Amino acid sequence: MTNQVVRLNYPSTLLHVPIINQLIKQYDLTVNIMRAQIDNDQGWIELQLAGPIQTIDEAVEWLQLQGIKVNFLKE
Question: Rounded to an integer, what distance in angstroms lies between the CA atom of residue 60 and that of residue 66?
Answer without folding.
Answer: 10
